[in-house]
Prior knowledge:
Layout: E1 10-17, E2 22-27, E3 31-34, H1 42-45, H2 56-73, H3 77-105, H4 110-113
Parallel strand pairs: 1-3
Antiparallel strand pairs: 1-2
Bound molecules: zinc ion (ZN).
Zinc ion is lined by residues 17, 19, 21, 36-37, 39-40.
Organism: Candidatus Buchananbacteria bacterium RIFCSPHIGHO2_01_FULL_39_8
Keywords: Metal-binding, Ribonucleoprotein, Ribosomal protein, RNA-binding, rRNA-binding, Zinc
Binding site for Zn(2+): 17, 19, 37, 40
Amino acid sequence: MKNDIHPKYYPDAKVICACGNSFTVGSTQPEIHIEICSLCHPFYTGKQKLVDTARRVEKFQARLAQKEEVSASRKGKKVKKAKAQIRKKQARKIKAEKENNPAKGGSASGGKEK
Ligand SMILES: [Zn+2]
């Protein structure tokens, strides 16, 4: 090995996980802090666990809940569109009935004379 070019090697560097687990590895750093290890990663535990160090998942779920609350109280475009179509249909029906009734009566001017 050439002198003065290699970093100091720690044969039993301590690795500390956020879950509390710790083990030793060979490293150029004496201590390594990690967020996830084989003891707490969902792949190894087989459990559905959200790894959430920055509260991102929690924040997202809060935002989602807020959005759903708002959308429940507010009428969306779809609802408005559907209502407008129903109104249009009713207007058309009334118009058709009005057009049909004078024809049945025989004279269109009958209503005007009254
Ligand atoms: Zn861990």
